[in-house]
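Hey Z.,

So I finally got round to the zinc ion thing we talked about over coffee. Here's the setup:
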Amino acid sequence: MLEELKQEVYEANMSLPKLGLVTFTWGNVSGIDREKGLFVIKPSGVDYDELKPSDLVVVNLKGEVVEGDMNPSSDTPTHTYLYNHFPKIGGIVHTHSPWAVSFAAAKLDVPAMNTTHADTFYGDVPAADALTKEEIEEDYEGNTGKTIVKTFEERGIDYEAIPAALVSQHGPFAWGPTPAKAVYNSKVLEVVAEEDYHAMQMTMDNSRLPQYLLDKHYYRKHGANAYYGQNNAKSQSHAKHE
Ligand SMILES: [Zn+2]
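And the result:
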């Protein structure tokens, strides 16, 4: 079942240690087949060097296991909540990468301070509220998804324009149209969090990007007028020959 997606999610999971985003087993990636309403996720507590595509667990949007011999990631209810509330995402990544965790621990947004940030995130990456005692006791992992969605709704943030969040006192979640893109966004968040930390040691005066520079970099890569990369080069040269 969903063999192609399992391979894709397996490769995305295996890229986490290679990118320096996970220590031990502290991370997971999932990917969803929206037509079938099923997602594939890493099994709980399995070392990356022992993980096989066939170990991945298939889960429905109620969070029930549909296929797999192992228990799914303990964060599965968070992934379920995010897939249900962010209907256009195709993959989710959770890690405890240290620079993003540093901002989460400090309960601070990762501010948009440089163009690397603006290339991927159209504004600050928000730090969602930490969970209350009641939320932790009631449904810890489900409410972890809920605090992210609540923050995006309350602040009016577009989850496609800013495809990541921190959960305060915990760590980062990132998402994207595919599992691989979600991993990419997770790594960009880690890089810009480190850069921001260093810049913030020096100054916070006038350090946030002005709107015109944020717009320039974000829309170079996103939307109808994007021109970064080679996607339009082919069609231009193709058009010349016709
Ligand atoms: Zn975690």
